[in-house]
Amino acid sequence: MKNFKNVFIFDHPLVKHKIAILRDKNTGMKQFRELIEEITTIMTYESMRDVELVPVEVETPLEKTVQYKVKEESIAIVPILRAGLGMVNGVHTVFPTACVGHIGMYRNEQTLEPQEYYCKLPDGIENKTVFLVDPMLATGGSAVDALNALKKRGCKNIKFMAIIGAPEGIEKVAIAHPDVKIYVSTLDRQLNAHGYILPGLGDAGDRLFGTK
Questions:
Q1: Which end of the chain has fewer CB within 10 Å, C or N?
Q2: Bridge partners (DSSP) listed for residue 155
Q3: Distance between CA atoms of 67 and 138, rounded to whole angstroms?
Q4: pTM of this prediction?
Q5: pLDDT tens over the chain, length 212 residues
Q6: Which listed residue (24, 111, 153, 211) is catalytic?
Q7: Which of 23, 33, 41, 107 is catalytic?
Q8: Which of 27, 41, 93, 203 is catalytic?
Q9: How far, CA to CA in Å, does 130 sit from each of 102, 138, 203?
Q10: Hey, how many other C-beta atoms are within 10 angstroms of the C-beta on 209?
Q11: What's the maximum distance between 2 C-alpha atoms anywhere in the chain?
Q12: Dihedral of CA 137/140/142/147: which sign?
């Protein structure tokens, strides 16, 4: 895979440990869901490194001092339905007051192309830092279309986070949206003929919600 300035692949021992358990086909739904949230929380700390801060005056038990906080109502989380829902709590652990929008996408199993079926976003999202989240970045089609939908509605500062990414999908998103920072905890080998990531972890939505 090419090196892209807007792509950040994590290389953290704790993430690797959690990914190993996440991949295991014997990992149950409850633990799978908890691991997705935990990995997302770790990723959120890094992806918020450049988030905007504003000065505030705080009075300690000893004196008044100027400190810095993330601007209120400046963060929005937008999961790509349905698997992206599993990452929302992980971001909320770091920034619990972030508002949440939703974008619904499904993949046409014949063409492998994404189809949008739902979009509900918070008021004023165009002025917020938006975290678009989806556990799996496979072909990249859903992510590209979701980013297009956000930009169409005026969003300018967008970050995309995925737990597992395939080279094909990362490259597609990075080229289509060079202004979007892409955070992926783990880079996998490739896609198979059906557009699934190898070695991957199966269908993240099914494993999160106990469906088939």
A1: C
A2: none
A3: 41
A4: 0.91
A5: 788 999 999 988 999 999 999 999 999 999 999 999 999 999 999 999 888 899 999 999 999 999 999 988 899 999 999 899 999 999 999 999 999 999 997 767 777 677 788 999 999 999 999 999 999 999 999 999 999 999 999 999 999 999 999 999 999 999 999 999 999 999 999 999 988 999 999 999 999 998 87
A6: 111
A7: 107
A8: 203
A9: 12, 21, 25
A10: 15
A11: 66
A12: positive
For residue 14, CA distances in Å to 10, 73, 182 come to 10, 31, 20
Q: Tell me, what DSSP letter sits at residue 60?
A: -
3-state secondary structure of 184: strand
143: CB partners within 8 A, 6+ apart: 80, 132, 134, 137, 160, 162, 169, 172, 173
Query: Which tokens belong to 143?
Result: 């992510």
